[in-house]
Amino acid sequence: MPKNFKAVLCQSDLRPAYYDSFHCLITGCRLSCCQGGWHITFGKKDYLTIKKQKGSPELNAGLDHCLRRIREKVDETYRYGEFILQDGCCPLLREGKCGLQLEKGEKVLPFVCRTFPRVETPMSSGYLERSLTPACEGVLAQLWDLPEGVDFLSDPLPPEEQKLYTYDEDASPLLGSFHPIRELCIDALQDRRRSLPERLLLLGMALRPLVEGETDVPAWLARSRALLESGEAAGLLREDLLPMFLVHHANTTLHIRGTDPVFQAKRKDIRAALGLPEGHVLRGSIQPGPYLAARERSGQLFGDRDYFFENLMVSLFFHMRMPDLTTPEALWKSYVNLCDLYAVYRFLAVMSCREGVEDCERELFDLLVLASRALIHDRERQTALRDELFHHDSATLAHMAILVGG
Ligand code: SF4
Question: Is the shortest distance between the CB of 25 and ligand 1 below 6 Å?
Answer without folding.
Answer: yes
